[in-house]
Q: What sequence folds into this?
């Protein structure tokens, strides 16, 4: 998904002012200043079509799914299963049986850890991750390590914030059973060469999970072209609701995995002696699901496709390059994460100013950035810093907002030096 100069030039332009009118929240002010929302990597804002789809569902269609012959239950089931087909098309999966609705990326990864890795792995087996993973792609594997006695290996990163590919490749062996890698780093913005990593892992017989939380809003993802075995992402980073996400899994693998939660909807028959399980994908969806979240997610996919993912990616790439140039001109700023292929994330520190203080000053100016370790503490340890400030961009971000960020940073520098 690396965005090349020629792809930026040839992508259709995004009418950002028109796009912004779809996001009512962007009109509000914060601390008496117009809101400058530069925290889309934490959670993107929702456009009117998503808000309206959820409202329409709640006011016209809501009932439980798969459970009633009455009209509303059937309409809710149609909306829910229709959304599954929408997701299948969005990521080009082979079948809707491969689309499992979960709460988000975190739950998707935990599902694979507990239902794929835990029953299969033991001492001598290895899981390989990288040094730039979000905690959601570290902790579930540590839990599996502690449960099974397998070994967890980590491919290191370099000072630009890239995975050292040679080291990654040399850590692969016939003992590697699972490889779990981010598609895009949330703390550094690095785009990983996942296709190459997946092919290499497969050559050693490993199964590959891709954490797509930060990639899905910035590029079109084709799970079959990537060849990954599992791909997890969250709706709320794709302009959809919170509490809903997707785990894609290859049907062949999902079919052999035991359910990971028991309850309603995931069963075919239950007696006190034994239970038989439902077929895919419902085997992995125990209990009443987040139906309105699913409806909102499908609307979000319609929305980003109506703008065009290429156009969004090119817009964000231009903005990232512009913001990088602007911040580099401010004395004392150090950009953390300088890989040549990055997406929509700009992490930085300011000499002599703790990122939390920086965040507070920016907030007083109406500028929302995330400060902290970004749920990637090993990345902070690697760079020997406690935290960074992180500006992140979405389809509605503008050069004027980058100017507000730069002005607020200059002000912070004056206050602290
Ligand atoms: N990163 C950020 O500010 P959930 O919370 O399940 O929707 O997503 C978890 C997750 C997993 N992987 C990556 C690469 C992520 O960026 C995230 C979420 C947010 O960077 C909140 S910590």
A:
């Amino acid at each position: 998904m690396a965005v090349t100069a020629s792809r930026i030039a040839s992508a259709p332009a995004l009418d950002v002012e028109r796009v912004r009118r779809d996001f009512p929240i962007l009109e509000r002010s914060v601390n008496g200043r117009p809101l400058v929302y530069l925290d889309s990597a934490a959670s993107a804002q929702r456009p009117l079509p998503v808000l309206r789809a959820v409202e329409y569902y709640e006011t016209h269609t809501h009932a439980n799914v798969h459970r009633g012959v009455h009209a509303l239950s059937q309409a809710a089931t149609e909306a829910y299963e229709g959304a599954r087909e929408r997701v299948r098309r969005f990521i080009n999966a082979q079948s809707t049986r491969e689309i499992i609705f979960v709460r988000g990326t975190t739950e998707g990864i935990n599902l694979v850890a507990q239902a794929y890795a835990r029953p299969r792995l033991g001492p001598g087996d290895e899981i390989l991750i990288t040094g730039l993973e979000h905690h959601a792609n570290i902790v579930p594997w540590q839990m599996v390590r502690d449960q099974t006695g397998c070994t967890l290996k980590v491919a290191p990163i370099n000072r630009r914030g890239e995975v050292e590919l040679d080291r990654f490749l040399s850590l692969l062996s016939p003992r590697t059973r699972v490889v779990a890698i981010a598609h895009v780093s949330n703390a550094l913005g690095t785009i990983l060469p996942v296709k190459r990593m997946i092919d290499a892992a497969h050559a050693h017989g490993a199964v590959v999970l891709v954490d797509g939380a930060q990639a899905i809003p910035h590029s079109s993802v084709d799970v079959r072209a990537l060849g990954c075995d599992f791909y997890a992402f969250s709706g709320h980073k794709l302009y959809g609701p919170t509490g809903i996400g997707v785990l894609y899994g290859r049907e062949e693998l999902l079919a052999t995995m035991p359910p990971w939660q028991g309850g309603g909807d995931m069963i075919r028959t239950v007696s006190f002696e034994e239970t038989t399980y439902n077929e895919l994908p419902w085997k992995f969806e125990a209990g009443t699901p987040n139906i309105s979240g699913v409806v909102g997610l499908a609307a979000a996919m319609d929305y980003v496709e109506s703008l065009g993912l290429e156009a969004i990616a090119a817009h964000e790439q231009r903005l990232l390059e512009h913001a990088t140039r602007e911040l580099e001109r401010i004395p004392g700023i150090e950009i953390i994460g300088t890989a040549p292929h990055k997406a929509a994330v700009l992490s930085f520190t300011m000499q002599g100013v703790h990122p939390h203080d920086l965040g507070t000053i920016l907030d007083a100016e109406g500028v929302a950035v995330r400060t902290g370790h970004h749920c990637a503490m090993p990345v902070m340890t690697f760079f020997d810093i406690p935290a960074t400030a992180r500006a992140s961009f979405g389809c509605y971000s503008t050069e004027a907002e980058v100017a507000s960020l730069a002005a607020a940073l200059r002000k912070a520098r004056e206050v602290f030096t």
